[in-house]
Automatic annotation (TrEMBL):
<feature type="repeat" description="Solcar">
    <location>
        <begin position="91"/>
        <end position="185"/>
    </location>
</feature>
<dbReference type="GO" id="GO:0022857">
    <property type="term" value="F:transmembrane transporter activity"/>
</dbReference>
<dbReference type="InterPro" id="IPR050567">
    <property type="entry name" value="Mitochondrial_Carrier"/>
</dbReference>
<dbReference type="InterPro" id="IPR023395">
    <property type="entry name" value="MCP_dom_sf"/>
</dbReference>
<keyword id="KW-0677">Repeat</keyword>
<dbReference type="Pfam" id="PF00153">
    <property type="entry name" value="Mito_carr"/>
</dbReference>
<keyword id="KW-0496">Mitochondrion</keyword>
<dbReference type="InterPro" id="IPR018108">
    <property type="entry name" value="MCP_transmembrane"/>
</dbReference>
<feature type="repeat" description="Solcar">
    <location>
        <begin position="193"/>
        <end position="280"/>
    </location>
</feature>
<keyword id="KW-0812">Transmembrane</keyword>
<feature type="repeat" description="Solcar">
    <location>
        <begin position="1"/>
        <end position="77"/>
    </location>
</feature>
<dbReference type="InterPro" id="IPR002067">
    <property type="entry name" value="MCP"/>
</dbReference>
<keyword id="KW-1133">Transmembrane helix</keyword>
<dbReference type="GO" id="GO:0005743">
    <property type="term" value="C:mitochondrial inner membrane"/>
</dbReference>
<comment type="similarity">
    <text>Belongs to the mitochondrial carrier (TC 2.A.29) family.</text>
</comment>
<feature type="transmembrane region" description="Helical">
    <location>
        <begin position="55"/>
        <end position="81"/>
    </location>
</feature>
<keyword id="KW-0472">Membrane</keyword>
Amino acid sequence: HLLVTTGALGLVLGHPFDTVKVRLQTQTTYRGIVDCMVKIYRHESLLGFFKGMSFPIASIAVVNSVLFGVYSNTLLVLTATSHQERRAQPPSYTHIFLAGCTGGFLQAYCLAPFDLIKVRLQNQTEPRAQPGSPPPRYQGPVHCAASIFREEGPRGLFRGAWALTLRDTPTMGIYFITYEGLCRQYTPEGQNPNSATVLVAGGFAGIASWVAATPLDVIKSRMQMDGLRRRAYQGMLDCMVSSVRQEGLGVFFRGVTINSARAFPVNAVTFLSYEYLLRWWG
Ligand SMILES: CN(C)C(=N)NCCC[C@H](N)C(=O)O
């Protein structure tokens, strides 16, 4: 419950930053973070920042359980040591990386449909329904999921899933390596890291993994928005090539600043609750 509650709290607080990131990655109307924030606030009010938030909250339990559960169990299989024994016999970084990649790979498939719906809703720039104004294409998350299913079939719900998998598999390895590496650096041998260490290591693990994930995050978001009207890209590679041709290499780092600001607190609390859970149950 703790992992779910703190995960959900982190998501709510981080969602406005995520919305700005997604808009910067997929729309060309904004000049930067501040311009994007001002425009959202003016046209869509504060509520504009919270579009598309309900499905991530509803799915965080499943997604985090798959990620951390698969990670822990893969580590268990690879090292043949329980969590308690692991402080005395720390696993190698290769094992941590492989376990992280496995967790990332499997959670990507659970995450894909929820992430697609989040991105589609975040990109609707219409203000809240005013009498006489045309309604947005999607009325809410369930309507969005049903419309995609109706218009594009079940595979439509997995648009961008391939880019998401490629994004998450190696970067989740980086996520757990950064976390473990920093914890070990600042914890006397054989002891558990203290809360401050866990928070800082978790925060930096979030930043490091998201910086590495940003190029494919941009491509993933663009693939998810493609097909809304006319198809612009033939596939992932085509999306990469045409994005670079039109906007230069900088396109691969769209949204990296605001996403890092979001990643620190979100992942600090995620790891804190993960450590508590392991100590209670481990
Ligand atoms: C680089 N990636 C994909 C990650 N580090 N993901 C794990 C963190 C997930 C967390 N809910 C977040 O959104 O930051």
